[in-house]
Amino acid sequence: MTEPTISVKCTTCGKTTRCKERDANRIFEGKIRCLHCGMLLQPEKRSTTWHAAGPALGEVLETGKNALLTLRRHQEIAIAGFATSSLRDLLEIGRLEKELHDILDKHGLRHVVVDFTNLKFMSSSVLSVLVRFQTKVRAAGGAVVLCSVSPEIQNVLKITRVGELFDIREGESDATRVLLRRL
Hints:
There is one protein chain. Helix 2 (90-105) runs parallel beside helix 3. The strands form 3 sheets. The protein has a 6-stranded mixed sheet, with helices on both faces. Strands 2-1-4-3 form a 4-stranded mixed sheet. It is 31% helix and 28% strand. The protein has helices spanning 24-28, 90-105, 125-139, 151-160, 172-182; strands spanning 5-10, 16-20, 40-43, 49-53, 59-60, 69-74, 77-82, 86-87, 111-115, 121-122, 143-147, 167-169. The model is unreliable at 44-56 (pLDDT under 50).
């Protein structure tokens, strides 16, 4: 006997995915992604259509063990998200700089979105790392866009005037759209 399935239509890409009925609760919890575009599927109220939540997943790129960044590729754009909520210690900051430079050196991606969604606190040393990374990316003909920066970190960027050096966008999709225009 075969297990019952349900059809789930993604409102982002419009394609239908068949899931096992027992996975319906995982979809309600936002734990299932569209097989075609990688978006999280979430149910709309009183509808059999499921919509995608959040930005496109893209191809997940390999990072080292205990990496400070998560890394994805969307077309020719790297999307680097912080895997930690706080960056304080100098050893972590050194690792962060290496991980950022690997985006260009190891993965060859010159257009980078740095997503601050998870980062709530950072040492001022991170500002220097970001400026050096931006300089390297620009020298390679690329661009860096920051997104989802908390009000506290935005305030630090404003006070130090480092924020003037970066294009800062509200969300990942907006930041990605800006870089797609530059490709």
